[in-house]
Design goal:
CATH architecture of the largest domain: 3-Layer(aba) Sandwich
Number of strands: 12
CATH topology of the largest domain: Rossmann fold
Radius of gyration: 20 Å
Number of helices: 9
Number of domains: 2
Largest sheet: 10 strands, mixed
Length: 305
């Protein structure tokens, strides 16, 4: 949360130069506060695990949030019970006339299928269009990021020779970007994907900016310059044992799978995972909620446009 200090205090300018957010008395007295409405479109097969991952990160903010779980009306989940879906999820058509302060769209296990061949592509692109006029700021994760970048900007995806699998060191391209306030010089993010987007396809798009990247895993976070869209190619939200479960599942099926990079102690899958991404993941989502949702969204949510 911002620190509220007296107007024109000399410290304001110095702190802002250090990329620290401060709020003077004038701005503070004109702020109205209400719960933030966040929508989660969960495209992952194991809905409940993903819910826990995302809610864990959102709950670290001191802001009061109201979360709506959204599902596609054109797709039926095969890995989560009907009872759970009916009890907790809303079909997109039932909420499309509402506005939200924030939206998160997860990845999905369809990355090796052409975008237009995904059975729910039409409804998903309807949601992409809806988000641009009904949501203050959106996060798209992994395949969700690839899909949104392709639909909004024509950015292609590319098949990898082998799965990008492990925890990879990321460098920050713009240390003064508010998304990285409080970050160290570099941070780690889990990745688990068979496809990628490439820097050369993004740098010439004037509306986009690469915020972080890795020599090993490539582009990591891309943002629209107006702060309304963030595209995460990795899984900062992953639980400590997510990659472990995936590795052992695929190995048990005799599928080709490498030991996840930078994950197990001594690179030995018999050892416990090393969790190196959790603190930055928490800060990443808190910064998004604060600087790109709470500080930007109007008090009257109906005026989002």
């Amino acid at each position: 949360m911002p620190l509220n200090i007296p107007d024109k205090l000399p410290a304001i300018e110095i702190l802002q130069e250090e990329n620290i957010f401060v709020m003077d008395e004038t701005r503070a007295t004109h702020q109205d506060i209400r719960p933030l409405k966040i929508a989660l479109l969960n495209l992952m097969p194991l809905k409940e695990s993903t819910e826990i991952d995302i809610i864990r990160l959102l709950s670290n903010s001191p802001l009061q949030l109201e979360l709506d779980l959204i599902k596609l009306s054109t797709h039926v989940s095969k890995n989560t019970s009907i009872e759970h879906m009916q009890a907790f999820y809303k079909d997109f058509p039932k909420i499309r006339n509402q506005k939200y302060d924030g939206l998160i769209i997860t990845g999905a296990p369809v990355e090796q299928i052409e975008f237009e061949e995904v059975t729910y592509w039409k409804e998903l692109t309807d949601i992409f269009d809806w988000a641009r006029i009904n949501v203050t700021s959106s996060i798209f994760i992994c395949w969700g990021a690839q899909a949104a970048l392709n639909y909004y900007y024509g950015v292609p995806k590319y098949q990898l020779d082998k799965k990008m699998f492990g925890v990879f060191k990321q460098s920050i391209c713009d240390p003064k970007h508010p998304l990285f306030r409080g970050f160290d010089d570099f941070f780690f993010v889990p990745h688990s994907r068979h496809t990628e987007i490439r820097k050369n396809d993004i740098v010439n798009i004037s509306d986009l900016k690469i915020l972080s990247e890795s020599d090993a895993s490539g582009v990591n976070i891309v943002a629209s310059k107006n702060g309304r869209e963030f595209f995460f190619t990795g899984h900062a939200e992953y639980s400590p044992d997510t990659l472990d479960k995936e590795f052992k599942r695929d190995r048990g099926k005799n599928l080709p799978i490498d030991i996840p990079v930078n994950y197990y102690v001594d690179n030995n899958p018999d050892n416990a995972p090393m969790v190196t991404w959790r603190s930055h993941a928490n800060l990443l989502f808190v910064n998004w909620l604060n600087y790109f949702v709470y500080q930007i969204t109007p008090f009257n949510i109906e005026t989002i446009e």
